[in-house]
Amino acid sequence: MEKNGSNIKTSTIYIQLLNEGTTVYRPALGEILGNGIYKILATENYDPEDEEWEFLPGSIVKCENKKLERGIFLVAVSKIEN
Description:
The protein is mainly β. The protein is built from no helices and 7 strands. It is globular.
């Protein structure tokens, strides 16, 4: 868990990229809202023309620990309607 200058608690979460030909995940910061719920924050180099994220920056998502090729990571699994 990290804190930025405005006291927002964040954690690295992983967002699946779509239309990549294989399953690929992109790390991004998520603002911790509690109970496994995060608000996705845009990365510095976010480019919707280059990558199609399953959930867009600003989305509120449910995250779960998932076993991926290189270990267990916190992955966004569903969007929370607000």
